[in-house]
Amino acid sequence: MNSLDLGFGIEEINSDVDFLKGNCLPRSAKVTTIESETKSYCLKVASEKISSKWLHSQKRGYCELESPNSLKSKTKLLEDEDSNTRSLPLKSNDLVVSSEKHLRSSRPESTTEDNIGEDFKKIISEISNERSCKYSSTLTTKESINLCTSDKLCTLSEDCTSMSNLTYSRELEVMSLDGEAECDFTDFPEPCEKLPKKTKTSNFAKSKPKKSNCSFFVGDPIPDDEARERWLWRYELKTQRSHDKKSKQNDDEEDEVVLNVECHFAQANIQSRIYNLGDCAYIQGDGKKKHIGRIVEFFKTTDGEKYFRVQWFYRVEDTVIKEVGGFHDKRRLFYSTIMNDNILDCIISKVLVTKVTPRVGLKMSSIAPSDFYYDMEYCVDYSTFRSIEIDNSVKNHHFASPCGSESVPTVATKTYQAELTLLDLYSGCGGMSTGLCLGAKASNVNIVTRWAVDCHKPACESIELNHPETNVRNEAAEDFLDLLREWEKLCKRYRSHNAGRTHSSRSKASTEVEDDHESSTEEFEVSHFVDICYGDPNKTGKRGLNFKVHWKGYSTSEDTWEPAEDLSNCQESLEEFVKDGMKRKILPLPAGVDVICGGPPCQGISGYNRFRNVDSPLDDERNRQIIVFMDIVKFLKPKYVLMENVVDILRFDKASLGRYALSRLVHMNYQARLGIIAAGCYGLPQFRLRVFLWGALPHENLPQFPLPTHDVIIRYWPPSEFERNTVAYDEDQPRELQKALVLQDAISDLPPVTNDETREKIEYHMPPETEFQRYIRSTKLEMDGSALDATRETKCSLYDHRPYPLSEDDYIRVCKIPKKKGANFRDLPGVVVGGNNVARRDPKEKILLLPSGKPLVPDYAFTFEQGKSKRPFARLWWDETVPTVVTFPTCHNQVALHPEQDRILTVREYARLQGFPDYYRFCGTVKARYRQIGNAVPVNVTRALGYALGLAIQKRSSNEPLLTLPQKFSLSTTYELANIHASQD
């Protein structure tokens, strides 16, 4: 039958479809093999520098196969099981149905026509001569979907002989949604304009089934000129490599781009079922496992083999989240641009896959009935989950690649007017929020740290001193979360409470006073409420909501914390406090926070914890703060989230902590992206590798990671599975990196101080010697760009330039350590080093004693790391970097001594290594200040991240996972960056 005579012929189909673009045929990064033993590997590369990535980043494309005819959905508002908020109803444009209803019968359905005649006999004859079918190749990377052989493909059955009148027309499938039916017309991809990039795939077994299959193409082939327009990349590749029948797409011989194409088709019959381009289907996988993909191409080779090209969907367990995502909806899929060619017989049956517009608060129960749905795309590089925002009402338009290479300007041009609010959880002294705000300001976005929470009082005092505009709460994160819940209830109550008063104008509270003979009640009048908290401020053993009360006739020193239940007759004062608190925004409310940042402590898995639970870290109470952090995000629903943590969350227990954090964000319908960043790459003389996790609401731009600005000396490597998450340049990518910074660049201008220095403030003795020193000495106005009117703030004095004093014994030992590179306890008299690099006492010499009677060389220097360590009493040197700034420097087991002075590095010197400007001051004891600095996120790193955040807020960031920072960004103030940009204009 001539297909042009049908109601839905070739011309009409072609006018209804989008063509496959070249950039939707991706390649994924190849993982460079590294040695399993990190220590031995590090020895080989310790002198190398991060200027290129160990793997190629995947250049991902984008094609949208959705029907322009969106289904009209009428869904019911349902209550969520764990929330008081009502579910958001699906809008009519929230659902786009791709494919057709899933064929639920275990055997092919018979057609109503019974007369086939001679045409079908020919088909049977052709099928019997077909080659045995092969099985499909699969998704890329370690998260790939593995497909394998199976001998359970169907044979020709009696049902096949009942088919007749096979047509080339588009099959119509009706889906009923609340009594409303619509036809499913699925668009084809857009024409391919580029050759496909290489795609890394998993190895899999191939075999030929013993039985033949009832699969064949339907109708006439698509005209050659039309096929070449749709799948241009395949024909171009065929022309380039015409001497090969097949061309491998990558090093895995199973994953091939088939080039000996004879013709293309628009339909296929598989097990008595008509499949169209754009349909979704189950595809044979490992054993009984079935995978899901969308059909984007049907073609026959010159050898007579029948193929289809599939675009894969990921289940959550196929992504980096893996088994940690067991609590996700089993119907949820993730769009991908991974495609490959497979034998037609791999198709098992149709499935109905629905596209849902991603919205935080959308309840699973409100999604229309379907086999599966998807609302995000998953990209392997940087473990990216991102929204798919496409206007399906426009046909044949070219979509921008979601992970493509579109050029977006990264230099700020004008100020973003709105002021955005930030909540800093586990704030410490404020390194993370300070850097984010400075970086955003450099992109002309004004972010203000409105709230900060930390359980350590000295850290809270430091952030209050440096950020007087911030509401700082010295409490545990769990108590803060409970407080937020109670505060929301109070705000809801009094926001609409305009009824008449039921209490006197002055509220009273009663307290009972008991003596030996009787009990009497004394009433105190409440003047006003001062503060609010949740917990146990009076140490009674009972947690709950408490208010700090100022009593009438008493001084502020006599303010007391009172349980909420004891203030039931103080409703007027309570209402005044709540309304004033809402006005002043003393606490954040849901959807009232723009950014949440924080580094939840994971002490149970820290590399400095010898007793960590490496097998099940989520069961360790010390690692529970990741859960609390995500619970706060779930409650407040900020626009953006940034979480920082140690690399060990990706190292122990199969990276369960890192996967959990990523999984929680995705489960809440946040976009997410995970990267590993070395602090030294942004102009600091320390390596310090850390994990950063971005999150963004579905309608926001997902922030990128900033590419390095400086070379860095590599100290150690991330886990091999997450190498592709390391923020670095590709090997073949051009870059202009500044040289790695060393200790001399950071601290050589600081005045000398002694071991006994106690002054809080001293003056500089010399001008800055390096670009870093000039930058780090900048005033606050220069740093945040407030001095753009050329008004110069008076240079500040030097604070916190004092060390933790050594003990008398240690000071004597340190004075005897030579002032040379590599000097350590092995340079002391009475120490010899054997051939196995083990230090021991010289048996020929008498043990030298200190005035205290203790040995000059302590025993722990010989026992630490079995005597092989060179760290006890070791001096840093000017041309070296620090591996990681820790919470407390000690000369017993760390390289912590100043190169030329007999002391450990001062608080200010450590602060510089972390990127804190000299104007930033610290509170508490000297030991507490070291702790604050060691726990902080380096300011230079978060400043670069803040710049990326600012671009995302302004919708000026691209869909690439990485961005290039402006020239000289890391060591230029906002004031200087503005001048540089002005001079370039």
From TrEMBL:
Belongs to the class I-like SAM-binding methyltransferase superfamily. C5-methyltransferase family. SMART domains: BAH, CHROMO. GO terms for cellular component: nucleus. The active site is at C602. Its EC number is 2.1.1.37. Residues 500-520 are annotated as: Disordered. Residues 273-389 form the BAH domain. Its main location: nucleus. GO terms for molecular function: chromatin binding; DNA (cytosine-5-)-methyltransferase activity; DNA binding. CDD domains: CD_CMT3_like. InterPro entries: BAH_dom, BAH_sf, C5-Methyltransferase, C5_DNA_meth_AS, C5_MeTfrase, C5_meth_CS, Chromo-like_dom_sf, Chromo/chromo_shadow_dom. Keywords: DNA-binding, Methyltransferase, Nucleus, S-adenosyl-L-methionine, Transferase. Residues 524-579 form the Chromo domain. It catalyses: a 2'-deoxycytidine in DNA + S-adenosyl-L-methionine = a 5-methyl-2'-deoxycytidine in DNA + S-adenosyl-L-homocysteine + H(+). One of its GO terms (biological process) is negative regulation of gene expression via chromosomal CpG island methylation. The keyword Ligase does not apply. It is found in: Nucleus. PROSITE patterns: BAH, C5_MTASE_1, C5_MTASE_2, CHROMO_2, SAM_MT_C5. This is Cytosine-specific methyltransferase.
